[in-house]
Amino acid sequence: MKSLFRSLSAVTLTLAVVAPQALAQDAYPTRPIRIVVPYPAGSALESVARTVSQTYNDNLGQPAVIMNKPGGSGIIGTQEVARAQPDGYTLLLGTNQTHGANSALYPNLPYDALGDFTPIAGLARMQHVLVVRKNLGVDSVRGLIELANKPGANLNVGSSGNGSASHLVAEMFMRSADVKMAHIPYKGSGEVAQGLLGGFVDVSFATLPSVLPFIKDGSIVALAVASKDRAPQLDSLPTLAQEGVRDVEADAWTALFAPAGTPPAVLAKVSAVTIDAFKDPGVVEKIGATGFVPEVTDGAAFKAFLAQDMQRWADVIKAANVKLD
């Protein structure tokens, strides 16, 4: 009888501990959710971040607040989420830089891109487009290469930061086309676009969302896409390969992550809401219009992709011989 009583007591104690946790997960969320964007406000990720925020506002019954935490090539904001309580209330809008290039560029990276995070969903990819300032006087890839090779040309190429995808693509281009340009790192894609508009930047491999409006109004000149396929929004613009510059393909991506250890029930709930929203034709059209290529995947599929993509960016960095001071 005593043995039975002890067993029942143990079960009761277990239920007393588990039940509140289960109820808390079922009720999730009960307070606002933070979506950390590790880049400045106004970056190319703005439209995706707003879409995620609105999705959670509409479907989870709690406000979802966008928190821009820029700095350190995306490291500062990403590290903050890695150290956050794994309860589903702090999420990260990560990129190929935060979870790809940084792992190869920084030997003492203060987070583990695979071990410290659980993917919620892959959301979209960003093509990089080769653009030049309006008054540079070139309208083709060949024309740019010829100008860059002229004595005294001294062209510069702006990027959204050291080790960013736009930096790496520029290095690949210079290597493949056998040209030299001075690299100018900015703090985000928005600053690069302003540099082009102001005439301070000659050339850039910019994410399409950050420059699409300026390409359309003619204030920035697009020459080619650094991707395996043409941009749906600019289908007459050739790829670099079609212009004779090979092996310069490096699409960026964005995905939503939670800290490792987040309860499976919470992950399942937020993942389902996210995937349903990003499959909606209206959202697909809206995201596509900003320059992204919508490609939503579930967390498990994205985790498998991420491991492969990290190796891809490591190979790109090695091939381009990119080293940070």
Automatic annotation (TrEMBL):
Xref: Pfam families: TctC (PF03401)
Sequence intervals crossing the membrane: none
Tagged with keyword Thylakoid: no
Protein keywords: Signal
UniProt KW Signal keyword: yes
Signal peptide: 1-24
Family: Belongs to the UPF0065 (bug) family.
Protein name per UniProt: ABC transporter substrate-binding protein
Organism: Bordetella genomosp. 6
Taxonomic lineage of the native organism: Bacteria, Pseudomonadati, Pseudomonadota, Betaproteobacteria, Burkholderiales
